[in-house]
Design goal:
Helix content is 23%, strand content 28%. The protein is built from 8 helices and 15 strands. The protein has helices at residues 154-157, 168-184, 189-193, 201-208, 270-274, 281-296, 317-329, 357-375, and strands spanning 10-12, 20-22, 25-26, 34-35, 41-60, 65-71, 74-81, 84-102, 125-132, 136-139, 146-152, 211-217, 263-267, 304-309, 333-338. Strands 1, 2, 3, 4, 5, 6, 7, 8, 9 and 10 form a 10-stranded antiparallel beta sheet that branches. A 5-stranded parallel beta sheet has the order 12-11-13-14-15, sandwiched between helices. The chain starts with 9 loop residues before the first strand and ends in a 5-residue tail after the last helix.
Length: 380
């Protein structure tokens, strides 16, 4: 729920040791931490002897920002915010684990378009603290023991997955919204309404294994070329963003020593081969090999990597499988998995032929046995 504060409240500072920050964060200013990747979250545990209002102070800049609120693991709110300062309020009583989570990626401006060079001028979300309407005991939640990192494009972000099947009006509005957003560099609210990163296959996998998730995904992004670009290469492909704490800040960098995943999943290549001119197979394979090798070099050699392919395009799958084989030969524990579905490539049920939530679930079920095989984990 979003509403103005009625009374002055005692502020719990972000650096008070009462919060767990999951996902990639910029903590260079500990009193004003910043975040931008989807599913980045603020977590805290409170014990309140009476009904209490918690107020999270956030500042956003994307055309719309979506924030999910969970109380003890149950979704209780979905908030849609326009740019500005916001007081996000949460009602609690007793012992409650509270999570405030960024529900989608930033869509404005579109970082994959060559026409819009100001991609590194899009400010992140900032968190300036939490207030309470009555005294509560606050503690920092324990980190999960399992960690998964997913790197991908719109499929991994859950773009358009909340579209209702056979709803032609909604489908037309979604497709029209994408076209309008591309032309005017400002996605309409319906795109945010129909996108749920929390229900994407990536988040479903992390939830099914009880793992913390770092999700680095950007709609339209590719290994060599982005989906909206006409040529076989793009100057701002995934390599421009993968090493950033804040993807659309020019001087941002991510400190890989802060967090090591137990498993990495990459699902890239759809936008290289979906529209317009595609890169030559050899060029794509070389670039993907270089990208994956560099990224896995940040982690212990025992860290497994899953290279997934599909379900929107399958043209690149033989190349992705070759990359997995080459990585294995170089010492990376790489495994290939094809996640093509019954509707592949042009019969999927989400917005503009993306997977919908049910198809995200099918993808997660296809990848989960591979995760169990390479990690020894069992699903919860």
């Amino acid at each position: 729920m979003l509403k103005p504060l009625a009374v002055a409240l005692t502020l719990v500072e972000p650096d008070a040791g009462s919060f767990s920050f999951t996902g990639r964060w910029d903590l260079s200013d500990p009193k004003l931490p910043k975040f931008q990747w989807p599913l980045t979250a603020i977590q805290t545990k409170v014990s309140c002897s009476e009904p209490t209002t918690l107020t999270f102070a956030l500042s956003t800049s994307d055309h719309y920002s979506v924030f999910n609120v969970y109380n003890n693991g149950q979704l209780t709110q979905v908030n849609y915010m326009q740019p500005g300062a916001h007081n996000l309020t949460v009602q609690v009583e007793g012992e409650v684990a509270v999570v405030v989570e960024k529900g989608t990626e930033d869509f404005s401006p579109d970082p994959t378009m060559q026409l819009f060079p100001r991609i590194f001028d899009s400010p992140p979300v900032s968190f300036s603290g939490m207030s309470m309407s009555s005294p509560c005991h606050i503690s920092k939640p324990s980190a999960k023991t399992r960690r998964i990192e997913v790197i991908g494009d719109s499929i991994s972000c859950g773009f358009g997955n909340a579209l209702q099947r056979d709803n032609k009006k909604e489908s037309a509005f979604c497709a029209g919204g994408v076209a309008i957003g591309t032309i005017f560099d400002k996605q309409p609210e319906i795109i945010y309404n129909l996108t749920s990163s929390r229900q994407a296959y990536s988040a479903q996998l992390a939830q099914s294994f009880g793992a913390d998730l770092h999700l680095q995904c950007i709609s339209g992004i590719g290994v060599c070329k982005n989906g909206d670009d006409f040529g076989p290469t793009s100057p701002r492909n995934i390599t421009n963003f993968i090493d950033k704490a804040l993807p659309y800040q020019k001087n941002s960098t991510w400190d890989y020593s802060l967090w090591h995943p137990d498993l990495v999943v990459m699902n890239l290549g759809t936008n290289d081969y979906d529209l317009f001119r595609s890169p030559a197979a050899g060029e794509f394979e070389s670039e993907y090999f270089r990208l994956a090798s560099k990224h896995m070099g940040h982690y212990p050699p025992s860290t497994p990597l899953i290279l997934a392919c599909g379900p929107m395009t399958i043209k690149q799958c033989s190349s992705v499988e070759k990359v997995a084989q080459a990585l294995t030969g170089s010492g990376v524990k790489a495994t290939f998995v094809n996640v093509s579905l019954a509707g592949t490539p042009s019969g999927l049920h989400g917005c503009i032929f993306h997977p919908d939530i049910a198809e995200d679930t099918q993808m997660a079920r296809a990848i989960a046995p591979v995760i169990s095989s390479v990690t020894g984990w069992h699903q919860l």
